[in-house]
Amino acid sequence: MITNFETNEALAEKKLLRRIRRWLAAFMILLIISGITASPVLAELSFAMQHKNWFPEFMQEWLVNIYTALQDIDQEHPYVFYAFDWLAFAHVIIALFFIGVYKNPVQNAWVLRTGMIACIAIIPLAFIAGGIREIPWFWRLIDCSFGVFGIIPLLLVERLTGKLKIIKTANA
Fold first, then answer.
1. What is the pLDDT of residues 155-164, one digit of tens each?
2. What is the pTM of this model?
3. Pair 38, 88: CB distance under 8 Å
């Protein structure tokens, strides 16, 4: 009977670890994708300009404004786009921190909490810096969505990690 109990606990631990790793892998992949899309911003905006009618009118005006401004920057000051490359790089580096959580979620739970703090911090940043930079409200809300949607898998992983910790403690 003890062997059966140990087997059930080991299976529960493996199942939890598998779920944690799936959510983390998805989070990391989406974090990297959201970052690397910053580098080809002009190509992306060019595509958006070709399909402006897909967007509501108030967004079309904003996209045309941004596209025109970035074309001017590209002509006169192309080195400014280096900041976009660093933004992409930062997303990749942040995703790498979650490898520790992937390997050992209980020991590296602090990374989850740091990630959740970052997701929450996106909201005031979007509204404060967005206001200073004259970013329209709808775009600030889009920026905030990264934090709102990013925190969901992290909260789930934290909850699963808590369950995993209980199982590990019981087995110790």
1. 999 999 999 9
2. 0.88
3. yes
